[in-house]
């Protein structure tokens, strides 16, 4: 399979997502890293974005709440090339009514080679990487012909 090279600019498009039991932890992480984050374009699922924006004053583009399709909206934005980083503090010990959407979002982030952090430690490593503020060239598989098949009728 061939590869595509994609330039991720210095100013990233970052999605912030957190399950209910992790919202306070993500909010604190954002507060701890506000100086770095305010240099980027921020997106979030509904409730998470409203909380972070209200508590920090950061400008955040909000999607729907996760259970109402927000996870799928973020996944769609990744597929379209509109998101560069996913910070998703998910709760692996709590069953979610939209678990299939969560798995689909994490899968699509991997398929499109999007850096993603699912906990604070990984988010700390990601935000302190020089690539977080520098241009980065990522490679992804080229799917243009992956699903095309000749159909004889």
UniProtKB/TrEMBL annotation:
GO terms, molecular function: methylglyoxal synthase activity
Catalysis: reaction(s): dihydroxyacetone phosphate = methylglyoxal + phosphate
Any one annotated GO CC term: cytosol
Name of the top EC class for this enzyme: lyase
EC number of this enzyme: 4.2.3.3
Any Gene Ontology biological process: methylglyoxal biosynthetic process
Pfam family, one: MGS
Keyword Transport among record annotations: no
MGS-like domain ranges (all copies): 6-153
Keyword Lyase applies: yes
UniProtKB keywords: Lyase
Residues at which substrate binds: 19, 23, 45-48, 65-66, 98
PROSITE patterns xrefs: METHYLGLYOXAL_SYNTH, MGS
Xref: CDD domains: MGS
Catalytic residues in the record: 71 (proton donor/acceptor)
Gene3D superfamilies hit by this protein: Methylglyoxal synthase-like domain
Function of the molecule: Catalyzes the formation of methylglyoxal from dihydroxyacetone phosphate.
HAMAP family from the UniProt entry: Methylglyoxal_synth
Homology family: Belongs to the methylglyoxal synthase family.
Name recorded for this polypeptide: Methylglyoxal synthase
Organism field: Clostridium collagenovorans DSM 3089
Chain's gene name: mgsA
């Amino acid at each position: 399979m061939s590869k595509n090279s994609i330039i991720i600019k210095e100013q990233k498009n970052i999605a912030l997502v957190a399950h209910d039991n992790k919202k306070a932890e993500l909010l604190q992480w954002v507060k701890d890293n506000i100086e770095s984050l305010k240099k980027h374009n921020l997106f979030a699922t509904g409730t998470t974005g409203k909380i972070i924006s209200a508590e920090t004053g950061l400008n955040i583009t909000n999607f729907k709440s996760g259970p109402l399709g927000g996870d799928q909206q973020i996944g769609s934005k990744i597929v379209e090339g509109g998101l560069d980083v996913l910070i998703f503090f998910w709760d692996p010990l709590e069953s979610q009514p939209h678990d299939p959407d969560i798995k689909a979002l994490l899968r699509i982030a991997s398929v499109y080679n999007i850096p993603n952090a699912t906990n604070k430690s990984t988010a700390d490593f990601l935000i302190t990487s020089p690539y977080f503020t520098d241009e980065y060239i990522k490679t992804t598989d080229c799917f243009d012909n992956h699903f095309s098949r000749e159909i004889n009728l």
